[in-house]
Amino acid sequence: MPAMRTAIPELICPAGTPAALRAAVEAGADAVYLGFRDATNARNFPGLNFDEGEFREGVDFAHTRACKVFVAINTFPPARRSGPWHEAVDRAADGGADAVILADVSLLDYAATRHPNLRRHLSVQASASNMDAIRFYQEAFGVARVVLPRVLTLAEITALNRQAIVETEIFAFGGLCVMAEGRCALSSYATGQSPNTNGVCSPASHVRYEQRNGKLISRLGKFIIDKVGDGISAGYPTLCKGRFVADGCAGHLFEEPTSLDAIGMLPKLVATGARALKIEGRQRGRTYVARVVATFRQALDALANGETPPHDNTLDTLTEGQRKTSGAYMKSWQ
Amino acid sequence: MAISPAPAKAALTLGPLLFNWPARERQDFYARIADEAPVDAVCLGEVVCGKRTPFFAADLPAMAERLRRAGKQVVWSTLALVVGGRDGEAVHAVCAGADDAAGDLVEANDFGAVALLAGRSHAIGPFVNVYNEGTLHHLALNGAQRITLPFELPGQSIRALAAAAEPVELPVELEVQIFGRTPLAISARCYHARTQGRSKNACDFVCDMDPDGMDVETLEGQSFLAINGTQTLSHAIGNLAREVPELMGMGVGRFRLSPHQIDMVAVARIFRAVLDGRIDGAEADARLAELAPFAPFANGFFHGHEGAAQVDPDSALSD
């Protein structure tokens, strides 16, 4: 007897470049998300993101293959400089985006007023971690979906979805902020570049490597983030993944250089009632995107058919530092 | 640079106590603040970790009454990161319990609290992202009468927001923190517990070991950050004593001091003297350095630099 069909969440995939967009679409993404090439999105790295022509071509490519396109405009416009953010919302609307992903109140207001028919998703950068906050954004700006902060456990996500007034989207794979997103000024404190307004955390422009006494020292601004012996591969010095000394002990105070990998708990993620699963990684190449998306597609399709998802370890080599975690989804992480 | 005096008398607020001090010490601290500190408003309530609240919740009404009797406004600050049922209930209780008739205000530190306070006069705390005029305007329409700006805002943003807050039909008082370690991040994970090999669930309240936060150094011994349970702060003490005249010139009328385990009455007197023009920023800095020897001062965020920087305001171009 065939098992009952499970409601399968959408698979939302990163598109840092046009090549990654095509790879994600072809590997089975239900939607891709991308940003424009400026500070209006939270992955404002050199060599990433889309100009207007690339965006329109990407929308064409995705739409002809029944894949949606979401545009992340999820930084906070600084005072007196909202112009580029408003233009980004207009560009997304005019170019046929299926949704915009926003965090700032003034920008949500702008989008809701100027483009009422364009779906508004609340970015993880808005850090809406409880029902009252979700209700605020839903009532004031009609957000259709909330990307939940990565601070929540599966039990807390399930509890939110039970009283659901909007769709929710949760992270399934990729880089992991250990701090509440959109509320972290650590990188800003060390570099002067605010993730919230410049769209970049631990920017490469402020990273320095120094070889000394057989050690490779990595710095962010004036601060040493890590120090490794010769021959050991040094990870990128993302501030919260660095090693520091507290209470006399040196170590990864905040988090190991690790990535979220929740594929092993996919049935549990689906059971939370989340409408969409998100793969992080707009800074990653198309090979990464193709493999991660295809693996998740296969697993979700298996679940849809009432089958057990195949056990697949091939993603292990793709996680940061080849280490993985289920992050905040388990209470013990806290 | 010529600076015009602010029209109304500038006000001082004592921000919420961020650290896990023993209940008895809290009582003594607020008793002395009520009796001696020249501050206009005092924030009460737990902002960092809801697990701490039961230790001092029963003392709050008496503290509040003593502060009110001393002519100080009581501001009830809500949690910055609200996750799960217990935290949510705590925020509901704060919003429901504040005595508006006695002149109290609730200060919302997340958008959940902003939702609960809609249509009622309230304050917005520095943990709510107010980066631009549109957000300020929206919050004012929702009932915010006072907004303490986020810690990382540069002076030029503060100037623009102060101009936006001025229109008479929607007056909002702006407040800026000018003294204390700067909150930089909040997490669901407790780093105090983590350094002791514990989880947040079984934390044993080890954050009480560090009344001003646990020092975090780089691998080569450079002071960097401070840990306060789930919160990460700057190692340096944010200090804008020398920038106060410029802030007043922009139209900022309220200034916040964040409690540390030092003589906060003396700190408040120094800043009152700066606001009244009785001493200048350099003299204030010298006196404050004696009172707070545990970390250097920083003013980088205000000047658009990295927050850890200490910039000479006389040679800086902040706008």
Question: Could you give the distance between the termini of chain B?
Answer: 12 Å
How many separate structural domains of chain A?
A: 2
Strand content of chain A: 15-25%
Q: Helices and strands of chain A, in N-to-C order?
A: EHEHEHEHEHEHEHHEEEEEEHEHE
CATH topology of chain B: TIM Barrel
From the N-terminal CA to the C-terminal CA of chain A, the straight-line distance is: 42 Å
| Outline type of chain B | globular
CATH class type of the largest domain in chain A:
Alpha Beta
Explained architecture:
With 334 residues, chain A is an alpha/beta fold. Chain A has 2 domains: 10-176 and 258-328, Alpha-Beta Barrel (TIM Barrel), CATH 3.20.20.60; 186-251, no CATH class. Chain A is 29% helix and 20% strand. Chain A is built from 10 helices and 15 strands. Chain A has an 8-stranded parallel beta barrel, surrounded by 6 helices. Chain A has a 3-stranded antiparallel sheet with strand order 8-9-10. In chain A, α1 packs parallel to α10 and α3 (83-94) crosses α4 (105-114). The longest helix of chain A is centred in the last third of the chain and has 19 residues, at 286-304. Chain A is globular, with a radius of gyration of 20 Å. Chain A starts with 9 loop residues before the first strand and ends in a 9-residue tail after the last strand. The relative contact order of chain A is 0.16. The model of chain A has no long low-confidence stretch (mean pLDDT 92). Chain B has 319 residues and is an alpha/beta fold. Chain B has one domain: Alpha-Beta Barrel (TIM Barrel), CATH 3.20.20. Helices cover 31% and strands 20% of the residues of chain B. Chain B has helices spanning 23-36, 60-69, 84-97, 111-116, 133-142, 155-164, 191-195, 244-250, 264-275, 281-291; strands at 11-14, 41-44, 73-77, 105-108, 122-124, 144-148, 173-186, 214-217, 223-228, 231-239, 254-257, 297-298. Chain B has an 8-stranded parallel beta barrel. The longest helix of chain B has 14 residues, at 23-36. The interface between A and B is large, with 71 and 72 residues. β11 (244-246) of chain A pairs antiparallel with β8 of chain B.
